Amino acid sequence: MSTLLKIENLCKSYPRPEGSIQAVHEVSLTVERGEFVAVQGPSGCGKTTLLLAAGALLQPSRGRVLVNDVDPYSLSPGQRARFRAVNVGFVFQQFHLVPYLDVLDNILAPALALGAKDGRRTRALELAAQFGLSDRLRHVPSGLSTGERQRVALARALLNQPSLLLADEPTGNLDKQNGQVVLRCLTEFARTGAVLCVTHEPQAADHADRVLNMIGGKLQ
Amino acid sequence: MNLIHLVLREICHRKLNFSLGAVSVSLAVACLVAELAILQKHDARTEQIVSAKEAATREQMAKLEDDYRKVMLKMGFNVLILPKDQNLGDLYADDFGSKFMPEEYAARLAKSRVATINHVLPSLQQKVKWPEFERTVLLMGVRGEVYIQSAQQKPLLDAVTPGTMILGHELARTLNLKAGEKTKFMGREFAVAKVNSERGNKDDITVWISLSEAQELLGKPGLINGILALDCTCDTLNRLGRIRPEIASILPDTQVIEYASQALTRAEARQRAAIEAQASIRREKEGRDKLRAEREALAAVLVPVVILGSSVWIGLLALANVRERRGEIGILRAIGLRTPQLLFIVLAKAGIIGFCGAGAGYVAGRTIGALWHETPDSSPLGIPFMDLRLFALILAAASLVALLASWLPAVHAAQQDPAVALREE
Questions:
Q1: Distance in Å, alpha carbon of A176 to nearest chain B alpha carbon
Q2: Are residues B240 and B133 in the same domain?
């Protein structure tokens, strides 16, 4: 097994007029290829901050993040964006689908970052079939159920075949059945890549190889 | 899928935002294009008015010229060349000469190509008795005209065809003779070719016949008693002083007198009329130019204000659009889109707004321009609807202005922190 994600002494604070808020404090974490790690904790404990920092979206105040042995924060913004597109997939609780693109185009959206390449469309159609969306390809998000929306978000996250999948409360808005579909997908992905999933739902822990608890910005 | 596809989809999704932007550009462009079209029409109208006035002036001047020629003709012309021994007192008393000179003098004068004289009309006139009617008349034998300057000159006097006569008005009235009738004069039969209209002078009791017949009837073969000459080059008041030596060098045994004071006055009046007509055209043009300047001044304020207002409006719409798409931009950044790509997404939309708005605005502006009448009664003036150069310029300029107006919102979108946007969403 190789280390896909390594977080060392990560700290992130947000300056506020009333004083700095320490969202994440001295967090160190390693996620190996083939591992599904769940981070649990109450709302506001710093789970999302940890996830965004791990995904090269949020510059830490201190500490280091390595994805595939590369520190994305040492790259230029353009290189970091490309690095993200190649290596990291995101799934959010709110799905964050582009409202005016249909299912197929939403799945294809990450291809915009890497430029048009042969086979993207085929891969998108395969993912749509894999997530049971083949008959919804021309539907826009507003015409989909919440479960379908999350499946579209999952398919989109997997289009560029990233090695690391970061999920922020991926089942938070789903019923039990759809939640299970998403968790099974994450488990499936973890066979070849790695998943870091932050959640406060116990059922996610059932699928994870490792469950970590986060309280007050620190991993227990 | 590519970025343009994404931009077009977004436009279709948020039609109101796009429409408000495009309408704003249309208004600004329509305002500009309509103003340009109106100014173009104004220029065309000015040209039309000035051309019409110039044509009217030309026509008026031609009429004046004609009147002038006729006046000169009725006056007996400017210059009268008489035999040197003709007593001028007798001439003024009887209004005809009693001395004679060879008819060949007229041809000699014509051949000499005197620069100051345009027309030479030899004549033989005598007061005679019309024996058939027991009337004293003035008999005028005219040969027509001996041209001096060119064969294209308009004749001042038509030759009277042998066997015909032209009668003065009073004479014809009292003798009850009409054009087309035949009559006898001094034993010879003549057809009345024409009866002149009333002139109120000796012409009304004059009989015009051909010079050769007059010479025969008066027994003066090859002789004339005057040469009427017209000096058209009336650019100097002392023209007699100029003509006399010229004629004296060609016809030494003649004298020259002038009947020109009235003609000069007329000529000066004609010149004054020409100057006044030109001044009137100039005043009209100045008035039109002033009106154009006023319109330009209004446009110089109105058009920039509308364009600025439109630009601000487009900028605000773009900002609102970017804020509305905060989460969407956040996820696009998260999945790896780079700053130039996000700039492109916002600016391409602005460019399309500018392009479409400019197209619609051009059509609207040109239509307004086409329907515009300077005055309710002015005739519609056609200007070409499609000016390709202007159209291309408007499309490019409007797109550029829309791009510039959306630049700050685009930069704002591109610099947006995706983590913040995603967390807030």
A1: 23
A2: yes
Judged by CB atoms closer than 8 Å, whether chains meet at B337 and A112 is answered as yes
Residue that is last in its domain, among B218, B243, B258: B258
Find out whether B143 and B122 touch, Cβ atoms under 8 Å.
yes
Residue B163: what are its φ and ψ, rounded to 5°?
A: 90, -5
Give yes or no: residues B239 and B366 share one domain: no
- Residue A133, in any domain of the structure: yes
| B123 plus B57 within the same structural domain | no
Q: How many domains does chain B have?
A: 2
**Domain coverage including residue B399:** 3-61+281-424
Chain A residues within 8 A of B13 when measuring between CB atoms: 99-100
Q: Are B351 and B399 in contact (CB under 8 A)?
A: yes
**pLDDT tens-digit profile of B90-148?**
777 776 778 899 998 888 888 886 766 767 888 898 889 999 988 899 999 988 777 66
Instruction: State whether B418 and A96 contact (CB < 8 Å).
Output: no
| A109 and A168 Cβ atoms separated by less than 8 Å | no
Give the residue among A122, A152, A120 at the shortest CA–CA distance from A136: A152
Range of the domain at A90: 35-59+72-212
pLDDT > 90 fraction of chain A, expressed in percent and rounded: 38
pTM: 0.63
Span A115-133, pLDDT tens digits: 766 678 888 999 999 888 9
ipTM metric:
0.86
Q: Return mean pLDDT, chain B.
A: 82
Written as six digits, the tokens of B118 are 């345009």
If one counts the domains in chain A, the total is 1
Over residues B218-272, the pLDDT tens digits come to 999 999 988 887 654 544 445 567 777 888 888 888 888 865 445 555 556 666 7
Residue of chain A with shortest Cα separation from B342: A113
**Other CB atoms closer than 10 Å to residue A146's CB: what's the count?**
13
A30 domain-assigned: no
What local confidence, expressed as pLDDT, does residue A104 receive?
A: 93
Contacts of A91 in chain B (CB under 8 A): none
For B216-277, give the secondary structure using H, E and C.
HHHCCCCEECEEEEECCCCCCCCHHHHHHHHHHHHCCCEEEEECCHHHHHHHHHHHHHHHHH
> Considering the domain boundaries, does residue A10 fall inside one?
no
Q: Nearest CB to B328: which of A52, A90, A98? A: A98
**pLDDT at residue number B227:** 87
Q: Is the pLDDT of residue B279 over 80?
A: yes
Pair B297, B239 in one domain = no
- What is chain A's alpha carbon radius of gyration, rounded to the nearest angstrom? 17
Question: How does DSSP classify residue B336?
Answer: T
Residues above pLDDT 70, as percent of chain B: 83
| Ramachandran area for residue A63 (φ above 0: left; ψ -120 to 50: alpha; else beta) | left
Indicate whether B415 and B334 sit together in one domain.
yes
Looking at the fold, whether B245 and B292 belong to one and the same domain comes out as no
Judge whether B266 lies within some domain: no
Look up the CATH number of the domain holding residue A78. 3.40.50.300
Q: Does B121 touch chain A (CB under 8 A)?
A: no
Q: What is the pLDDT confidence band of residue B273, given thresholds at 50, 70 and 90?
A: confident
- B107 and B242 inside one domain: yes
- Residue B74: its pLDDT value, please? 45
Same domain membership, residue B285 and residue B372: yes
Domain assignment present for A194: yes
Pick the residue of B331, B343, B415, B423 with the most A CBs within 10 A to test the interface with A by mutation.
B331
